[in-house]
């Protein structure tokens, strides 16, 4: 019995130590997302170091706009796909999946929108968040969702126009 506990302890310890690879070790990362996150975060945890280069170059706004426009297009496309899945209210799985996709797409650009376009962000969140929350439910209210789709699309298209005019 004592051997069993020793073996279990060594096994657990090995798993814990094996999972604690350093972020600098590229052998531990297999997904490109992980390397992108490592590159975007400063090693010291200081956020100022990641902001300084773009401020020095004066291209902070231009970089945001070029990244933000395709992101808004992706969110608009996700809302349209969710809207098309509302045509068959009997099958809830596609609605749940499209709602999850919509949330993920919005999460990618949410901070940039909130920082660059705070008024537009507030307008979008009034219809987008209820739409996402309803889509994730086991029994979503299709009529409510249909009411939120159009204002969400309108506010996202307005945001897109604001991005293009800057």
Automatic annotation (TrEMBL):
Key words, A-Z: Signal
Biased composition (Low complexity): 36-48
Record-linked PROSITE patterns: PROKAR_LIPOPROTEIN
Recorded superkingdom: Bacteria
Region (Disordered): 20-101
Extent of the signal sequence: 1-21
UniProt name for this protein: Lipoprotein
